[in-house]
Amino acid sequence: MKQVENKNLIFFHSTGSSAISLLFFNSLDNMRYKDCCLCTSLFYLLLISAKGQDTNIYSLPTVRIETYRQLNILYRQRLVTDSLFQKAFRNTTLTELLQAQGLYAIRTYGNYSLATLNFRGSASTQNNILWNGISLLSNMNGVSDLSLLPVHFFEEITIELGSNSAYWGSGSIGGSLLLNSQPNLSKKGFNVNFSLQSGSFGQHQTSGLLAWKGKKITNQLKFFYNQAQNNFPFRNTSIAGNPWQIQTNAFALSKGILNETYLVFAKRQALSFHLWLQEAFRQIPPILSVPVARAIQKDKVHRVLLNYRKEPSNLIGVQLKFFYQLENIYYEDPLANIFSDNRAQTFWLESEFRQKIFFKSPQIQMQVLAGASGQFQKAQAQGYGENKPQQWRSFIWSSLQLEYHYKNEQIFCLGLKARMESIDARIYAPSGQISLQYQNAKIRITSLLARSFRFPTFNDLYWKPGGNLALKPETSWNFELLSDWKNKILSLTQFQLQIGTFSNWVNDWIIWLPAQNYWQPQNLQKVWARGAEVILNISQKIQKLTLQGGGKYTFCKSTNEKVRFANDHALGKQLIYTPLHTAQAEITAVWKYFTIRYYQTFTGIRFISSDNHEYLPAFTLGNILFTFQNSSSKLKPLKNLYLHYRISNLFNASYMVIAQRPMPGRQHEFCIQVSF
């Protein structure tokens, strides 16, 4: 195993302000980024120096960073990660958290390996990931690796199923993952939170929060350091007799910081500055049929976000954003003689305006939203040859939401959204959405019709050989019908049932196909994805014991409706790696400071050939979580202490998510968190 240099984290402390102001990596050898860190530190110190000023204004926690678009969306299939799960998975990545939540098809190559979203039978490139309203998708391959997104960096994690390109733009066909950072501090002054976690197969994780909260200024510094050997045993099914082997060349190390400064400087106005620095080193383990591997991958990312927000009162609400992202990926495979160094940059400037319109009749309310963005992207990769592709994009969008209130109990809503985008001054057909909604105290019904799109990536257009400049954007028509019923039934404290159906027709689906002696992307496929989703949540309180239960089930049939040639056996067949059935069931018991949760996930068979002759078998995983959490002053010696013990894959199932990529068996994990 290649030895990885242990690079220490260095902290600078400002005694005059009594706050942590900077954390960075010794390994950042480019002085530009060290200077960027230093400037951020100085900016923060200048803000802290103003803490003695009079600040009789709105308290900071009322200022939210999420976009007006997110607030303005009519109710739909949106799933928020519950606080218990999010805390239990704080030291992990979004891959582990979303897999535990069930319902979602996460394609992962293994622990700390590449993982992508695949909602509702869509491709990985057709799902968006947004951080405070800014897309994190790579302009090179059109995806964002979930294994590089730490749960600890986000206060709110929301899944929005279904098409919403009219709001979020290219790639939002199957669904979107919304990640929001919010100042969430319980008291003024210093807030410190520290977590240590250790688990099977050499996993060790550390994370922390160092924050200072004033009347006018808040700063929070989050950091993490994770490493894992991933040397788990598995059965090699590609060898006669299925012998046990140990996973090799699978070491992973990642570390990062996120510094966020929030300033409320006038009534209903706020400014936030976010600096995100992260590095990862991963060895790439071999597939089952290859005995030895030496491949490695190094990832570096730097993100800067500046956000100004003016909350709407009787005037127009305004939100302005500037975003910069630098991604660097180095891949090396000496056995294949590959040494690839790739670099991509994104500059993003965005504005949003929100206006509430009041009528003489209080029964009618209307809200109008409009915005514009400009984005410049460029990339450099050995696969592009001498080309250094760059692209200018501009966007305008608008929406109207009209509500009619009847007898203060029933609400009828109409939502209209439209978006127009251009690339290098070439205007493309708009995307749009119309939705209708009815709700009362017990039930809510929503229907939606949308037209969505996805632009080709730099790899699709410029990769040599194979890049195809004649590619057209993917387009889709999407229909959804969703019902949500809440009621008290059979003396249950809470009963909630959601039933949703969807039908998505995607045209000009981009697929890479053999062309002469290389592969080339073409607009040859049409795909029809349809299905249903059911979510049930119930709870019952019995004296001091609270019982909660629930389940999720998804049926998704996603088939090829157009083939390249006659008698192609892929016609009408399920897309590869798209399970027809996925489900999750869970039960939770809460008594005083103790919680026990058992959850079971099921993933159906996944075909790995386009004619559906070859497939990966279905698998089910049992998991159990024990937690102790004290926030009461009655147990002062243990105040603000959190402990958990988790067993994943309780019954030691042998399974694969991706062919030839074994997954670990039973895993144990213990975590302790303290805050003060």
Write a structural description:
The protein is 7% helix and 55% strand. It is mainly β and 676 residues long. The protein has a 22-stranded antiparallel barrel. A five-stranded mixed sheet has the order 3-8-9-6-7, with no helix packed on it. The protein has a two-stranded antiparallel sheet with strand order 1-2. A hairpin with a 3-residue loop joins strand 11 and strand 12. The chain is globular, with a radius of gyration of 25 Å.
Descriptors:
mainly beta; 5-stranded mixed beta sheet; about 675 residues; 38 strands; disordered N terminus; 6 helices; about 5% helix; globular; single chain
- Give the CA-based shape: globular
- Poorly predicted sequence stretches spanning 5 or more consecutive residues: 1-63
- State the total count of DSSP E strands: 38
Proportion of residues in helical segments = under 10%
Please report the number of helical segments. Answer: 6
- Major sheet details: 22 strands, antiparallel, barrel
Mean pLDDT score, rounded? 85
Note the gap between the termini.
Answer: 40 Å
Q: Determine Rg (CA atoms, Å).
A: 25 Å
The assigned structural class equals mainly beta
- Chain oligomer state: single chain
Question: In what range is the share of β-strand residues?
Answer: over 45%
Task: Furnish the topology, listing elements before pairings.
Blueprint lengths: L8 E6 L4 E7 L5 H18 L19 H4 L6 E3 L2 H6 L5 H8 L3 E4 L6 E4 L8 E5 L2 E2 L20 E6 L3 H4 L6 E6 L8 E11 L3 E11 L3 E12 L4 E3 L8 E3 L5 E15 L2 E15 L12 E15 L6 E17 L4 E21 L5 E17 L9 E17 L3 E14 L2 E2 L3 E9 L3 E12 L3 H5 L11 E14 L6 E22 L2 E25 L2 E16 L20 E11 L2 E10 L2 E2 L7 E2 L2 E12 L10 E8 L7 E3 L2 E2 L4 E9 L1
Parallel strand pairs: 6-9
Antiparallel strand pairs: 1-2, 3-8, 4-5, 6-7, 8-9, 10-11, 10-38, 11-12, 12-15, 13-14, 15-16, 16-17, 17-18, 18-19, 19-20, 20-21, 21-22, 22-23, 22-24, 24-25, 25-26, 26-27, 27-28, 28-29, 29-30, 30-31, 31-34, 32-33, 34-35, 35-38, 36-37
